[in-house]
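I had to read the description of the data format several times before I understood it. In essence, backbone conformation is discretised, so a fold becomes a row of integers matching the chain in length. I therefore recommend that a typical entry be quoted early in the introduction. For illustration, here is how one protein appears when written out as sequence plus structure tokens.

***
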Amino acid sequence: MAITEKEEIQKLYYSITEVSEMFELNASTLRFWEKEFDILKPTKNKKGNRLFTQKDIDLLRKIVELVKQKGYTIQGAKDQLKNKSIQKKLDNNNEKVIEKLKLIKSKLIIIRDKDI
């Protein structure tokens, strides 16, 4: 039974079997990576079955790229992901600062124009 692209996009959770087929990995590899990578946390149902969200799949895609395609060790992949998340936080903070500065600038312009 083939799943169409539209149905796949609307799916909220993927089973470990589906995810292992997506990446051509054993389910045991996914379970191992879950233990190794702290940021990979699929939810579990009452039975204990892992349910992967799109965010988990995106993270797995990065892990597969680092480990399988680029040849990183597990520790090297962890370091790369950690560095990327730190950089992302810095970028987000920079964007917030820039927005605040723009707001201050616009308020100062209003004050300046009132005095004229």
